[in-house]
Amino acid sequence: MGIKEINPGKAIMWGYVGISIGDLMSGFISHLLKSRKMAIFYMLAFTLVGVVIMLFGNTNTETKYYIFCVWLGLGTGYWAMFVTLAAEQFGTNIRNTATTTVPNMVRGLVPVMILAFDLLKHNFTVIISAAIVGLVVFGLAFYSAITISETHNKDLEFTE
Question: What is the pLDDT of residues 53-67, one digit of tens each?
Answer without folding.
Answer: 999 998 889 999 999
